[in-house]
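To whoever is on call:

I kicked off a structure prediction for a single chain this morning and the downstream step that reads the tokens threw a length-mismatch warning. I double-checked the sequence; it's 190 residues and nothing unusual in it as far as I can see. Pasting both halves so you can look.
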Amino acid sequence: MKLWVGLGNPGAKHALDRHNIGFMVVDAIADDHKFGPEQAKFSGLARTGMIGDEKVLILKPTTFMNKSGLSVQKAMAFYKIPLSDVTVFHDELDIAPGKVRVKMGGGLAGHNGLKSINQMCGGPDFQRIRLGIGHPGHKDRVSGYVLSGFAKDEINLRDDMCNGIGRYADKLASGATDLFQNRVAEYIAR
């Protein structure tokens, strides 16, 4: 089983925040691939289903961003999932809105959700799907920016990113990460 984690903050207040793009994307994947209903478990909301030949557990931690690792660690321990089979979908300030990048391991770029997973789950060697939200221009504005909604002119881009990732998740599940990234980019640019 693979564990795909969408990062975000729980509650209606945060549902449409830029910081919650990870939640939005994994919901799109689960809906596109007709996963079972959401269940409260592992200090999060979980759905299980098949993508191609791969069984995938989708998890949205409800611990708030800075404690996401607690939820991920519980799911990993329960199903004995190695860190190498964990994929984390998260917002990325250093990538333009609507751009998607796949990365294995590496730095945490100051992202509190990634830091928590790194600390609780055995290091940084998990796959990341970096979801571009752009940067507000100055580091003093980052907190307010990520905790606010997408601008009107970004909503279609956000929706295309979610839909493209959902549509081509089978490429990601099979390990064809370059093909996944290319197909999603083509879908968004269409």
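Update from on-call: the warning came from a stale cache, not from the record. Cleared it. Sanity check on the structure: Residues 18 and 120 are 24 Å apart (CA to CA).
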